[in-house]
Amino acid sequence: MLRLMGWLCTSSDNYKNSQMCLITGPNIDLAIKLIKRLKQIFSNPDKLGIYFTNKETVLELNGCSIQAYPSNHIDSFRSLTNPKFILCDEFDFVPPGQQEDARHVTERYIAKSDPYIAMTYETLGVSC
Question: What is the sign, positive or negative, of the torsion defined by CA atoms of 25, 82, 39, 47?
Answer without folding.
Answer: positive
